[in-house]
Amino acid sequence: xxxxxxxTVVGEALVDLVIAPDGTVVAKLGGAPFNTARAAARxxxxxxxxxxxxxxxxxxxxxxxxxxxDVNAVSARTDLPTTLSAAELDxxxxxxxxxxxxxxxxxxxxxxxxxxxxxxxxFTGGLALGLQxxxxxxxxxxxxxxxxxxxxxxxxxxxxxxxxxxxxxVTVRRALARADVVKVSDEDLEYIHPGADSIDAARRLLDNxxxxxxxxxxxxxTSIVTTDGVVEVPVxxxxxxxxxxxxxxxxxxxxxxxxxxxxxxxRNGMTHDxxxxxxxxxxxxxxVVVTRQGADPPHRADxxxxxx
Length: 308
Hints:
There is one protein chain. By secondary structure, this protein is an alpha/beta fold. The chain has helices spanning 32-42, 57-68, 134-143, 165-178, 186-192, 198-206, 248-262, 272-289, and strands spanning 6-10, 14-19, 25-30, 47-54, 71-78, 84-89, 95-100, 120-125, 150-154, 181-185, 212-216, 222-226, 229-233. It has a single domain, classed as Ribokinase (UDP-N-acetylmuramoyl-L-alanine:D-glutamate ligase, 3-Layer(aba) Sandwich), CATH 3.40.1190.20. The strands form 2 sheets. It has a 9-stranded mixed sheet with strand order 5-4-1-8-9-10-11-12-13, sandwiched between helices. A 4-stranded mixed sheet has the order 3-2-6-7. Helix 1 (32-42) crosses helix 7, helix 3 packs parallel to helix 4 (165-178) and helix 7 (248-262) crosses helix 8 (272-289). The protein is globular.
């Protein structure tokens, strides 16, 4: 009997120390793939998270949150302390990050059995492509993914954690070689192809293998870039003021794959109409999370009835 399609998210779980402009510090559970997994599950997708979690209190909190959001966690438990990031907010709510990585849990994800990845959608990116041995473990999973699996990579560059830019870009290109959909921000593209126009840089990423590159630019909208051309999808008006942008991109990614799964689409479903609808759905979910403190993705009930 064949297994039902799922969304499998591979990567880091950590704790964000959110520092407000007045110096107030609040600990929030995070990590881009962790947030993405939760966002997809809250939008009714069946989700499995693969990552390394500490046995410390923060690690137990991360595991409990995954369970609360109905995410199936296939986690390597370690006695290393939980990885931390400091997310400093400016007056507009935008966050800049500093990471505390050495000797911590997230990078320690060991090589995994790629055959354990469920049919459906495989999502990865962020620190998962920049830290060892996790990066090699992630590449192994991508390389061995069944041909039926839709692979989505959110590049989500973190230059502050990259010790060797050239080696990091080799890892990114290896991941993109099997990717079907790539999500990048304009800042990611500037790091990968300095000085290039963002759309030209996105077209260069298509040369690595993916069918679609989604270029996100916050409130300016998203560009869908394929070999057939570029489609601009604007962002709608927010229902409430921005509190902070933590988890906005992750919620976008989680909503994108949740919508794709809910529509019953796979690798062969990337039509113009489907891509536009998926991006609009992702915008709608991200528009909710920016009105909340920290990465608190919306549930399905928080979105319009016609969301999917």
